[in-house]
Amino acid sequence: MFSKILFAAALALAAGPALADAGHAHGEARAYGEPGDAKKPARTIAITMRETDGKMMFIPSKIEVRQGEQIKFVLRNNGEIDHEIVLATLAENLKHGAEMQKNPDMEHDDPNARRLSPKKTGEMIWKFTKVGEFDFSCLIPGHREAGMTGTIVVTAKTGAF
C-alpha cells in the first residue's frame, strides 16, 4: 500500500510543470556570458516581442555589444499571446527548443530567460564576457520557427568603457 502511495505522489510531481534545466547553476558563467549585477552600470537595450501577418519577431533582431559590457534588456511583449526570450548559444537554444516541443508547459527560472504575457514588460541583465555570435529566441513551440529569433554579436573590447 505504501509503495502505491509513493508511486502516486511521484506521478503527481512528474505531471506538474517542468522547470527548464539548461545545465547551469544560477550565477555560473556560460559561453555567452554571465548574469549581470543590477547594482552596476549597464547600457539599456529595449527589445519588443510581437506577432504580425503570421510572423513572430523580436525588434531589434540583431544587437551588437562589446566584450565585458553589461546590458540591461528592457523587454515588452506587444503581442496577443505569451512570448519568451532565451539567450544562449545557437546550439543550446536549438536543443532547448527540441525539449520544449516535448514539454510545452516548461517554465524557466534562469537568469538568461524571461517569459512575458501579452502587453507585459520585464527586464534581464546580462554581462557579455566572451567574443562571439550568440542567439536569442522564443522557444515556445512554433515561435522560433515563425521567425522569433535574433543574434547578439559580441566584439572584442577596445579601450576603456
TrEMBL record:
Keywords associated with the record: Copper, Metal-binding, Signal
Molecular functions per Gene Ontology: copper ion binding; electron transfer activity
Domain of life: Bacteria
Family annotation (PROSITE patterns): MULTICOPPER_OXIDASE1
Domain Blue (type 1) copper: 48-154
Signal peptide extent: 1-20
Protein name as it appears in the record: Copper resistance protein
Organism name: Labrys okinawensis
